[in-house]
């Protein structure tokens, strides 16, 4: 099944009264480790609250959704990409953040799985082609090879 079929926009609150497509769009996609995620959640919230003309979207995975939702204002859009599974399965089900790893020996497998998010993320970005984002803010995995 194509990853885009699994992608789900979780909320879509507009904060400025402007049509969504006409607002500058900031996409934020943190690496799934709390030390990376928390600062970018704070950044997303600050952008959304202090720059209401911006449309802010945070990209996350299913197991990280509740953590993000509890820390963000409703004006930040959440897009959920399915977390890839490795074959043979190397990570326990639901392990989508470094803090959920039962052992740091699984960190290399976790990195391999996060690298597989590039394709569904690229599909998500392609779906925005009629209204591309102003900027994409990410760390680590998007530049990691």
TrEMBL record:
Transmembrane segments: none
Region Disordered: start-end pairs: 1-20
Limits of the Glycosyltransferase N-terminal domain: 26-140
Low complexity bias spans: 1-17
Record-level Gene Ontology MF annotations: UDP-glucosyltransferase activity
Family of the protein in this entry: Belongs to the UDP-glycosyltransferase family.
Protein name: Glycosyltransferase N-terminal domain-containing protein
Organism per entry: Oryza rufipogon (Brownbeard rice)
């Amino acid at each position: 099944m194509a990853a885009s079929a699994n992608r789900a926009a979780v909320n879509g609150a507009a904060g400025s009264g402007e049509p969504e497509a006409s607002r500058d769009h900031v996409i934020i996609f943190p690496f799934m480790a709390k030390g990376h995620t928390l600062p970018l959640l704070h950044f997303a919230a600050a952008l959304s609250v202090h720059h209401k003309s911006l449309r802010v979207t945070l990209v996350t995975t299913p197991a990280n959704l509740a953590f993000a939702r509890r820390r963000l204002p409703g004006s930040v859009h959440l897009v959920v990409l399915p977390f890839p599974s490795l074959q043979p399965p190397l990570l326990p089900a639901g392990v989508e953040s470094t803090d959920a790893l039962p052992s740091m020996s699984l960190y290399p497998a976790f990195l391999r799985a996060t690298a597989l998010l590039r394709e569904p993320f690229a599909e998500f970005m392609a779906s925005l082609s009629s209204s591309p984002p102003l900027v994409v803010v990410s760390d680590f995995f998007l530049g990691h090879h």
